[in-house]
Amino acid sequence: MMRKLQQFFFGTLTVALLFTNLVQAQSNRWEPTNGPFGGVAQAMTITSTGDIFIGSRSGIFKSTDNGETWVKKNNGMNSSFITSLVVNSADILFAGTTNIGIYRSEDGGESWQTINSGLTRVNVQSIDINANDALFIGIDGDGVHYSEDNGDTWTAKNNGLADLRVFAVAENSNGDIYAGTIATGIYRLAATDTAWVALSSGLSNLRCDSFETNADGEVFAGMGRGVYKLADDDTTWIEHKNNANNLGFVTSLYFSASNELFASSLAGLHRFDAQTGDWVPLNNGVTNLRTWAILQNSAGELFATSDAGFLYSEDNGENWLTRVNGFKTARISGIVDCPDGSILASTENNGIFRSSDAGTNWEPANNGLSALAVRKMVMDSSGTIFVGVSGSSGVFRSDDNGNSWVNVKKGLASSSIMALIVSNGAVYAAPSNLGVFHSNDNGDNWLALPDSGLTNKSIRALAVNSDGVLFAGTWNGGIFKITVNDTVWTEVNNGLTKLLVTALVINEKGFIFAGTSGGGVFRSSDNGENWVDINEGFISKSVLTLAISPFGQVFGGTAGGGVIFTANDGDNWTELKDGLGNMTINALTVTPTGQIYAGTAGDGVFRSTEMITSVQKMTENIPSDVVLHQNFPNPFNPETTISFTMNNPVEVSLKIFDIRGREIRSLLQSKQPAGHNSVVWDGRDSTGRKVVSGHYVYQIKSAGNRISRKMLLLK
């Protein structure tokens, strides 16, 4: 009885210590890594002093050095999705957003204020400013509004406008206003008229996202398929091209100071050759052809935005350089800790990035990865990495820590990969709305699993337990499972009150954790037969990702609520938000040394400032035959003694790590005798160099268990 009481007390104390350690560390729990830089850049404007402003899905960025460096400028903004940017003659900035309306900055972007008086809807898609600084905005669902007082008040200008879903607006030199809609073409409000009239004759595609006028007052429209020019009859549009070179979806048009017409599109950047009548591609150096805007500064340098960030050209677009230092808007879709110690982060638009120094520096890792819209990334126990991408390319594989990628999709349905896992030598992938495929040869060949009983094929999460039972979490259909060699799926939703399943993980005990959109986390301890709500301790109920640490704790990434954590299988949760705030977390991983990496939806990768290994697993997993003592002296300089006690002879490893989880030195890797053992660390790394002052972690490992302690080197 006494032993049971001791075990209960020690287990309770261990959980309490783990929670105390994490909560106390919340004052500096997270810090941003230095990237990955890049991400979707869309709207753009240039002030009279040459400052460049970019609107992104993560707010506004400013550069004062032609894009060499960028600084985020979101003070006062509650919306991060910027659709449009303009600047007036007094260098007052205006930004349109998808959900807050219009912002204005009168101090060079240092602060922003909403200016929505007179607006009933706030999904602003376009802003235009005329020579007199009058503003015109196109609103999805509320037509055209204008302001003559720098946005203090807005007045609707919708008489006769049959389609209020306006995505482009512009005024020409005659005072005529043009409105481009998402589905019904173009409308014009002549300067001498009071009502809009349809003006779509000659258009083969009726979506319009941009307008531009040249020095002669001619009007050009960027459409869902190509560029059109308003004919001399002023009523008909003529496609503006001579060749078969298809621009595709045109996102913006721009006339340079020399009256050359440039176009950005989802097929890259182009310049119109007036002599041949052809569109000339300008994509040398453009790493992502989804481009959104193009402008020229007073020195004749060209700037463009794309899904990879900001582009710079000093030779009229013949060659481009990507400049994204400080521009961090990447939406992270996955993170893995590679066997070589590097970290890979996949993104939704720009492929994969690698850091070999815990996030201080990042570099692209896309060799062989022909599809850059990565939705999922996983790694098996041998270090082989798989990524699932959007589109028809399916799955890619890397056997060398992400240095190179091979497309492996033979037999796999051609559709975006919505879920991807590896388990016991098998790979499972869920193409969009097409059920589940599996491969037993590292992805070289794929076979579809039976779909009988799988009444919802919109799969968002997969997990496999130790018995080989496969679980599939679906969007609005809950959870299904299929056992080994079975041919029929079984719905297992008893107690699962929210059926929008976004994440599934299974711990060593066989407990299944299901993250949902709007319902938080559910747990099953009986192979999915029954589910219980386990949401005590956190507010955000949309859980996008779940991860189990090497030490058994469960971490969750939420939509707008940062990271959540439990050390007792979900009975209680703690929010770990300090340093993250209310960010949306798409991906999580915990390294073997306890470093946590969090991938955000638009702010790159964050890392924990403290590792979680100071207290280990629950009592039943704490090794009874090894005790790791605090080093002495501590703090120390130049050396310290690390001691441990063992009840039985056993193989142990003793390693030193820095606070970011990088291995510094291996002190022991051998069988040690029973009793008291010790080893001296001289403060040097594996190459013999003295390490810098700071906190370090020493970790002993035996029989699959790890114990870690911290120490401080002071010089």
Give a written overview of the molecule.
This protein is mainly β. Among the domains are: 1-32 and 536-618, N-terminal domain of TfIIb (Single Sheet), CATH 2.20.25; 623-713, Immunoglobulin-like, CATH 2.60.40. Helices cover 3% and strands 43% of the residues. The protein has one helix and 63 strands. It is globular and about 95 Å long.
Give me the CATH architecture of one domain, please: Single Sheet
Strand order of the largest sheet: 1-56-55-54
**Largest sheet, if any?**
4 strands, antiparallel
DSSP E strands, number? 63
Overall 3D shape = globular
**And the CATH topology of one domain?**
N-terminal domain of TfIIb
User: Which stretches are low in confidence, meaning pLDDT under 50 for 5 or more residues running?
Assistant: 1-26, 614-624
Continuous helix count: 1
- Assigned CATH class of one domain: Mainly Beta
Overall SS class? mainly beta
User: How far is the N terminus from the C terminus?
Assistant: 50 Å
Beta-strand content bin: 35-45%
Helix content: under 10%
Spatial extent as radius of gyration: 29 Å
Mean pLDDT: 90
